[in-house]
C-alpha cells in the first residue's frame, strides 16, 4: 500500500515535470520573466521585494544545471517547482480520501490547467511559493 502511494506521488511529479521541461522556452522572455531569468544567474537584485529565496535558489539551480541557455534553466526550475506542487496536490487528495487513481487524475488535471501551465513554463517567483 505504501509503495503504491509513493509510486503515485512519483508519477504526479514526473509526468508534469517532463512535460513542463520539454515545453520550457529556451529564449529570454519579457518584463518580469526576463528579469527573473537573468538576475539569479548573476546573484543580483530584482525589483521590490527582491525575491531573495528565488534568487538564491535560481543561482544554485542555474549554476548546477549546465544544460541549455540560462533562460531555459530558469524556466525549467519553475517547471520543477510546479511539478513539486503537483505531487503535493496528490498527497492532499489522498488525505481527503480519494483513491490513488482518482488522486492522480485530479493532480494531472490541476497540473495541466491553463493558469498552472502558463506559470510552469516560464520563470516566475511565485512558482517556488506554490511548491
Written overview of the protein:
- The chain is mainly α and 131 residues long.
- The protein has one domain (2-130).
- The chain has seven helices and no strands.
- Helix 2 (31-42) packs across helix 3 and helix 2 (31-42) packs across helix 4.
- The longest helix is centred in the middle third of the chain and has 26 residues, at 70-95.
- It starts with a helix and ends with a helix.
In short:
This protein has 131 residues and is mostly helical. The protein is built from 7 helices and no strands.
Question: Layout of SSEs?
Answer:
Elements: H1 2-23, H2 31-42, H3 52-64, H4 70-95, H5 100-111, H6 114-120, H7 126-130
Helix pairs in contact: 1-4, 1-5, 2-3, 2-4, 4-5
Name the descriptors.
7 helices, 131 residues, mainly alpha, elongated
Helix/strand structural class: mainly alpha
Range of helix content: over 70%
Largest sheet: none
Number of helices: 7
Q: List low-pLDDT spans.
A: none
CA radius of gyration is: 15 Å
Total domains: 1
- N-C termini distance: 25 Å
Amino acid at each position: 500500500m505504501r509503495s503504491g502511494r509513493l509510486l503515485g506521488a512519483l508519477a504526479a511529479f514526473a509526468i508534469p515535470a517532463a512535460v513542463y521541461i520539454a515545453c520550457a522556452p529556451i529564449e529570454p522572455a519579457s518584463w518580469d520573466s526576463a528579469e527573473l531569468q537573468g538576475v539569479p544567474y548573476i546573484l543580483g537584485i530584482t525589483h521590490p521585494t527582491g525575491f531573495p529565496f528565488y534568487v538564491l535558489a535560481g543561482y544554485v539551480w542555474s549554476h548546477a544545471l549546465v544544460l541549455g541557455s540560462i533562460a531555459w534553466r530558469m524556466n525549467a526550475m519553475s517547471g520543477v517547482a510546479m511539478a513539486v506542487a503537483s505531487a503535493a496536490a496528490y498527497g492532499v487528495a489522498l488525505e481527503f480520501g480519494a483513491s490513488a487513481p482518482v488522486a492522480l487524475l485530479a493532480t494531472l488535471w490541476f497540473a495541466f490547467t491553463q493558469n498552472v501551465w502558463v506559470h510552469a513554463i516560464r520563470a516566475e517567483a511565485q512558482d517556488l511559493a506554490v511548491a
